[in-house]
Amino acid sequence: MKIELKKFGEMLISRPAGREAYLAMLAYLIKGVSRDEIIEIDFGGVKVLTPSWADEVITKLAAEFKNIKLLNTQNSTVAATLRTLIKYSDLKI
Amino acid sequence: MEKLAMKWVLDIGTDAISESYYCATRDVFQARLDNLLNDLLIIGKIDEGVAYLVSAIAGEIGNNSFDHNIGNWPSVPGVFFDWRANDGIEIVLADRGRGIMQTLKKVRPEIKNDQEAFRVAFFEKISGRAPEARGNGLKFVRESVKDQKIHLSFISGDAVAELNDDFNVGLAEQKINGCLAIIKI
């Protein structure tokens, strides 16, 4: 399944907003989805992403599902945020 | 703008600070952050990708103020947040919160002074809100500032850090209780 982050906004900044987004995903998007299913996280259309928001969403999705694919990660803040999470938040993708 | 922010942090005759600078809540800060990005894109002095990164840096610093002081503001809650574009672009954020050292001392009581707290905050994997696994913001800020040739001055307590290609920390001219960040591009 594909999760389009732009549907949560173009500026994904704060931890409370990230936590809210993840709870919405739990309730409506990934509920009942197998841990083995391929989860595509699409960053297309996101203008500003920070480690605070992403740590509440991306890190948790990566811990929950075995097969995570990241799409459209060219945005400067997306690339920098993913580097930070891999280095400091034990994000393994 | 720097002087006004310093006066506000020190609570020197700025009780009636303009609402155009002051963000009492995170919602107001978020809205002004949207305006910052729009202004950066309209001004056009920097590339679009850099404008996004600058917004992310300001977003991390401002949201840190709310994350680490919520329910525990020593005096006035919220942040000072403004920017100017002249020869370059200058962005100023400030808060009257507990500051870096007091925040980190909860989880690292051995920290001796503000300068040591800065080194922990900007380099080490640690959270001021442990046991929550969090605390990447200032590492992201440091690395983004270095990558994009931005200059950041960050003051908290009696320490000041100057970030660009290097990271230098020393004694600030004026001690403050919260945080003051000046971003120059």
Q: Would you give an account of this structure?
A:
The complex is a heterodimer of chains A (93) and B (185). Chain A contains three helices and five strands, in the order ββαββαβα. With 93 residues, chain A is of the alpha/beta class. Chain A has one domain. In chain A, the strands form two sheets. Chain A has a three-stranded parallel sheet with strand order 1-3-5, covered by helices on one side. A two-stranded parallel sheet of chain A has the order 2-4. Chain B is built from six helices and five strands; from the N terminus they run H-E-H-H-E-E-H-H-H-E-E. Chain B has a five-stranded antiparallel sheet with strand order 1-2-3-5-4, sandwiched between helices. In chain B, a hairpin with a 3-residue loop joins strand 4 and strand 5. In chain B, helix 2 (26-43) runs antiparallel to helix 3 (48-69), helix 3 (48-69) runs antiparallel to helix 6 and helix 4 crosses helix 5. Classes of the chains: A alpha/beta (93), B alpha+beta (185). The A-B interface holds A 11, 13-16, 47-52, 55, 75-77, 80-81, 83-85, 87-89 and B 26, 30, 33-34, 37, 49-50, 52-53, 55-56, 59-60, 63, 66-67, 125, 133-137, 139-140, 143-144, 147.
